[in-house]
Design goal:
By secondary structure, the chain is an alpha/beta fold. The chain has a single domain, classed as Rossmann fold (3-Layer(aba) Sandwich), CATH 3.40.50. Helix content is 26%, strand content 26%. The protein has 5 helices and 7 strands. Strands 1-7-6-2-5-4-3 form a 7-stranded mixed sheet, with helices on one face. Helix 1 crosses helix 2. The two termini are 26 Å apart. Bound molecules: adenosine-5'-diphosphate and magnesium ion (MG). Adenosine-5'-diphosphate (ADP) binds next to helix 1 and helix 2.
C-alpha cells in the first residue's frame, strides 16, 4: 500500500467485527449529503472487502438489482435513488493510460456524481485527490481494521 496521498485533514481508525459493521459504516456514509459528489478511494488487499463496502454503500443509496464488480470492465455505472449517478471503478486490470480518455473517464471525473475507486494506485497521476481514502486491513475471516483519511473538506464533511 503506497502512502503517497496528499495532506491528511482528519483521520479515524475503526474496527469491523464482521460484515454487518461494514454495512453499518456504509449506511452512515450514505446518510451524509456530501456523498453524492464525493470521490472515495478504497485500498487494501484482495478479499479485504472493498467491493463489499461499495455494494453496501450503493444499496444504501437506493441501487437495486445485481451490483457487478467492475474488475473486468474497470467501471460500472449506477443510477442512485435521488437521480444522481455513481461510477464504481476497479483499476486492477487498468494498464493503458490511453484507455482513460477512450473510456470517457475524464468526463466522469469532471462531472458531478459519486466516484468510488478500488486499486486507485494503478491509475495514479490520472485521478484527482480523493475526498476520503479508506484503507481496509484483513485481521481474520470476518474482522477488519479500517483507517479512514479525509483529504479534502468534503471528506471531512463525510466523516462528520
Ligand atoms: N468485516 C467484513 N467487511 C467486509 N467484507 C467482509 C467482512 N467479513 C467478511 N467479509 C467478506 O470478505 C469478502 C471480501 O471480498 P471483496 O469485497 O470482493 O474484497 P475486495 O474487493 O477487497 O477484493 C466478501 O466475501 C465478504 O463477504
Ligand atoms: Mg474488489
Amino acid at each position: 500500500m503506497t502512502d503517497d496521498h496528499g495532506p491528511i485533514l482528519e483521520s479515524r481508525r475503526i474496527d469491523w467485527a464482521d460484515e454487518a459493521d461494514c454495512e453499518a459504516f456504509a449506511r452512515a456514509l450514505a446518510a451524509q449529503s456530501a456523498i453524492s459528489e464525493a470521490f472515495i478511494e478504497l485500498h487494501g488487499p484482495l478479499g479485504a472487502g472493498k467491493t463489499t463496502l461499495v455494494r453496501h454503500l450503493l444499496r444504501a443509496l437506493g441501487v437495486s438489482g445485481r451490483i457487478k464488480s467492475p474488475s473486468y470492465t474497470v467501471m460500472e455505472p449506477h443510477a442512485l435513488a435521488d437521480g444522481s449517478e455513481a461510477a464504481h471503478f476497479d483499476f486492477y486490470r487498468f494498464n493503458d493510460p490511453r484507455e482513460w480518455l477512450d473510456a470517457g473517464f475524464r468526463e466522469i471525473f469532471a462531472s458531478k456524481g459519486l466516484k468510488i475507486a478500488e486499486w486507485a494506485d494503478k491509475a495514479a497521476g490520472l485521478l484527482p485527490v480523493a475526498d476520503l481514502r479508506i484503507e481496509i486491513e484483513l485481521v481474520d475471516e470476518h474482522r477488519r481494521q479500517v483507517r479512514i483519511l479525509a483529504l479534502t473538506e468534503r471528506g471531512r464533511d463525510l466523516l462528520a
